[in-house]
Amino acid sequence: xxxxxxxxxxxxxxxxxxxxxxxxxxxxxxxxxxxxxxxxxxxxxxxxxxxxxxxxxxxxxxxxxxxxxxxxxxxxxxxxxxxxxxxxxxxxxxxxxxxxxxxxxxxxxxxxxxxxxxxxxxxxxxxxxxxxxxxxxxxxxxxxxxxxxxxxxxxxxxxxxxxxxxxxxxxxxxxxxxxx
Length: 180
Ligand code: NI
Hints:
Oligomer: single chain
Largest sheet: 5 strands, antiparallel
Bound molecules: nickel (II) ion
CATH class: Alpha Beta
Distance between the termini: 27 Å
Mean pLDDT: 95
CATH superfamily: Peptide deformylase
CATH architecture: Alpha-Beta Complex
Radius of gyration: 17 Å
Helix content: 25-40%
Shape: globular
CATH topology: Peptide Deformylase
Strand content: 25-35%
Number of domains: 1
Low-confidence stretches: none
Strand order of the largest sheet: 1-2-3-6-7
Structural class: alpha+beta
Number of helices: 3
């Protein structure tokens, strides 16, 4: 199991444009496996490589939703390499989002409801699919990361500044505190 440190705001790495993945090889496989370990441990439902300081166009998602209402969460790991949004619906939907790089802050973000994506999977095959619901939200949030965009960029300036201030304040308190 390989846990990688998760980069948090205001680290400028989060603002970089990630580079395409050139080769799906064993080295990439190891990174993918470490990213899943890191995401499950956090815990989160999506993680972009840039969040572990690797600015490559790669993301992992597992919504960990139960099969039926009230049931146990089921692991369904998804890997998206070089994902591209081919089409986004005019219809929009609002979802309460958070981000492992912006700890413990949540806000309502409006995005297209349905997206059509093309990506390369972990076996190197090019695939296409249409996604709605939480998967659509998660894909759009993670693809934003690959372009240096954070969910707070979709908020008003006032709300964004408030979230950033809260994260900084919490971090200062954490650093000052004697955790016994
Ligand atoms: Ni995020």
